[in-house]
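Sorry, any thoughts here?
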Amino acid sequence: MVVFMSYRKGANFERKVRDKLKDMGAFVVRSAGSKGVFDLIAIFEDGRVWGVQCKMSFRISNEEIRKMVEIGEKYPIEPMLATKLDRKIVFIDVREIEKYKYQKVRNSNRW
């Protein structure tokens, strides 16, 4: 039951992020139950493409960051983390994630 509730909360957060991206003018594709690098792909009218990983808890592993950056270097995709700060959805370019280390968590494999 706990796993299902966790999945449900994550899926609901992904939908909220998708809606916010649409409000920002993006065409958004959601990969339901994704086990890939990105949960959402957002394409903006100006040609920017964001690969978005959604994390309600603001926790992302170094391995996830590495994979996102690697894909972003190979393809024209900006690797973005969508998370909540002060109850608001924010987007953080994972290539600049060091600026947000004040949010560091206890697990040494996660920043």
Q: What stands out?
A: The chain has one domain: 2-103. The domain at 2-103 is CATH 3.40.1350.10 (Trna Endonuclease; Chain: A, domain 1). The first helix runs from residue 2 to 23. Residues 103-111 have pLDDT under 50 and may be disordered.
